[in-house]
Amino acid sequence: MWPLLSGSAVQLGPVFTKQPGSVVFPLQHGENRKEVVFSCEAQGHPPPFYRWKLNDSFIHPRPGSRYSLVGGNLHISRLNKDEDVGIYQCLGSNSFGTIVSREASLHVAYLEDFKTHRRNPVRVREGQGVVLLCGPPSHSGELTFKWIFNEYPSFVTQDTRRFVSQKTGNLYIAKVDPSDVGNYTCVVTNTVTKSSVQGPPTPLVLRVDGVMGEYEPKIEVQFPEVVPVAKSSTVKLECFALGNPVPTISWRREGGASFGRKVDVNKASGVLEIPYFQMEDAGVYECVAENSRGRNLVKGKLSFYAAPQLTEKPQDVQKTIDDTLVWECKANGKPKPSYRWLKNGEPLDHMEVNNGVLNITSLNLADIGMYQCVAENRHGRVFTNAELPIAPDFSQNLLKAQTLARQGGDVLIECKPRMSPRGIISWRKGKEALRENHRVTVLDNGSLRISNVTRLDDGLYTCVARNQFGVASSAGSLLVKEPTAITSPAGHLDVTVGESIVLPCQVSHDPTLELKFTWFFNEQLIHFGNLWAFFEKVGGRSSGDIMIRNIQPKHAGKYTCAVQTKVDSVSIATDVVVRGPPGPPGDCRVTAVTENTASVSWAPGADNYSPILSYAIQARTPFFLGWQAVNTVPKLLGGKQLSATVIDLNPWVEYEFRVLATNSIGTGEPSRPSKKARTRETPPRVTPARVNGGGGGHSELVITWEELQSGSGFGYVVAFRPLGAQGWMQAAVTSPEASRYVFKNESIPPFSPYQVKVGVYNNRGEGPFSPVTTIHSAEEEPSRAPGRLRARSVSASEVEVTWKPLAWSNRRILGYERLAGCSPFFAAPSQAPGKIMWNTSNSKVILRWDQVHALENESEVTGYKVMYSQDKHSRPSVVETNSTSLELSLPVNQDYVIQIKPFSEGGEGRSSRQITIPKIAGGLWRICRVMIPVLLCTSFLLSKAISKLYCCRFY
Known about the structure:
With 955 residues, this protein is mainly β. The chain has 9 domains: 12-109, Immunoglobulins (Immunoglobulin-like, Sandwich), CATH 2.60.40.10; 116-213, Sandwich (Immunoglobulin-like), CATH 2.60.40; 214-306, Immunoglobulins (Immunoglobulin-like), CATH 2.60.40.10; 313-388, Immunoglobulins (Immunoglobulin-like, Sandwich); 392-479, Immunoglobulins (Immunoglobulin-like), CATH 2.60.40.10; 485-579, Sandwich (Immunoglobulin-like); 587-679, Immunoglobulins (Immunoglobulin-like); 689-777, Immunoglobulin-like (Sandwich), CATH 2.60.40; and more. The protein has no helices and 88 strands. Strands 3, 6, 7, 10, 11, 12 and 15 form a 7-stranded mixed beta sheet that branches. Strands 1, 40, 43, 44, 47 and 48 form a 6-stranded mixed beta sheet that branches. Strands 13, 16, 19, 20 and 21 form a 5-stranded mixed beta sheet that branches. Strand 17 and strand 18 form a beta hairpin. It is extended and about 155 Å long.
């Protein structure tokens, strides 16, 4: 047996040997080339790698960035006070897990200049107290303050009357004397950068309106009511008062407790300092200011606090699957610390944690890793590490029950047990240890690789994993299968458009394996269905043949048949050439034109695997229906010809041209049309066609022709004469779009024969006249009326009329005119009731309207119909009356729609518009005016076959 060792040493999780510390870095004004280094170093096997976080976000060192890693140390170059300030934390990781370091802060100490502006004088009376504000500029880091009196190096001396606060920087003068008059300048020093800046001077001026009298102390410099103090630190309390006389300052502890020896009261009792603060120094401290006018007092409580310190740490343990783990973590601190746990640097939110105790029941492989207890209060936090190893286990990654391999191929059997630390991997075949050779290899990760597999490699394989905490194994079978092979030869098919072909894909394979056939066309998967309607599967179980029906040029290309089984895959490719008519020529353009020729060129299109034999040119104009073949020079355009001259064109006509190519298979699609090109103009050579005429009004001769176009300045010459006359009368028509001329003369007899002809001209000259044709002048109206006129009433508004048609003489009878404006007999009223008024009272509605008067052709109005309903769509109720008023009894809680129409013997007349009467709401009269429509009657000509007359009626 050949064991696989995961390493020469026992694996260990990472443990920090160096952790980063907080840094306050001095940065001078305008300086940007400073570098900061945070240290981090850890031990472990394999050696840990490192990552860093800034404010809980990972830092990503890249070439050229300001961050770089040297070992585990983080280097920050070109320090930026806006981007780099924050909390840093190092993470150390190896294959066993991850731990996080303590947190380290980076603060950049700097001091900017004062804003450059003058300060106003401070005016006080003699004997009055005053406060001069320093207003330090933007900064970071601890500051100290001094004041210059008038000029450097004369500094203000602190005594019982003058005090400089190191908290605010302000200068306090308890009682101003004349000697205090002058300029005061605040000097600020950064204790880290050692740099100093001076503010603008503040003038102090005495007022001349009197002297300040005596007053009791007023404490201006105070300390907070509660001052938290860390263990072993130094605390300073400031206290100063204004007053007249100058107050005295004294300190005491509440309850009369004594100060320790270390307590220092200095600077004329303005500052109380307690170094190395301990629990017994906590309590309430009082500052008393008093003079002959009274006393004042402030007090504050110094509270003791301490960051956490571990008293009990969890220890590394060795567990197996399903064991229970209990780890306890304890720490001292004030206030009392809280606890949380991390696993591999991430919070353990789902675990049971109670007052620092971590309890994990039924351990599994997912619990392996590095654990850290974090004890913290608002003054700090501490970390402690513990490692959880696990004995080997295959429960989550068993070997595959069966692994299939192709005879002659390679196979990989994976072995992935969970164990910590990593141990030894070995293999068995059957009951025998598996020995490595030129074909059999155990990889570094424990997996087994067998090359050039044979039938003898069939069998049961077992992977065995062991470390110092236990041993486990998992087994699976290897089955060797016959390889799959395509028996159809690769080939090349040459077909013609429209044919149907079969592409073969026959295979030999292991009969126990299922086959999957997949076809690709030019590397694109073929989906058999509607979008691929030309393709159809025709193969059987061991055949993947496909048929292409009605093959087209777009189907030319490379076809690949891919065959897959669970153990292997093979493929074969066939190139298909589809010969078809040529593709459309390209770039068809007109290069030159004359009066009746155009030079056309083009580029060859795809020949679709059959050489182009000839080209043909077609043309289109606004005067053609569709595309027409044209004559060319040369007459026959061979397959190499890429230009030609089109002849026999008409002058001054816009033409488009296109080209078609032909090969032995057929003629292909035409090219895109060329841009429109107009032939040059010439004197007209073509006469207008379809010269004709006739019709028109009294004494008119109407001449018509078919429109032409031939050059700029184009027009027509119209010539005409009575039949048998010698001379011609002529008229010029200057509009090229004209196709009609009317000659009017009272001497023209009706329906007289005339000879006419039409010629053309343009700016280049005159053209020929059309052949002479004979037309007739306009006819006159018939001189006699039709005979045997009969009329029969059909209805109140319709009459049927019959007559005998007139006989033709030298005048043609074209039709008969329909009479207009017929008045119906006893017609219904055409006017609607107007000026409708109503009022409401209780549950009654009283309506009134103007009387409708009948027109001459209408029968007299005999009454009115009043229709009312609750809405526009319901069936109305009808009340008839022969007066112009009506009283209706209606419910008071409903809206009503009302219409009124007159009626007579001729029928019902026109209705008024709809009137809405809202719910009964008082007795106000309302008026509705209704427009009266006008009765219209249309007329039109009847053909000679119509002998009835109808009169229009409107309602």
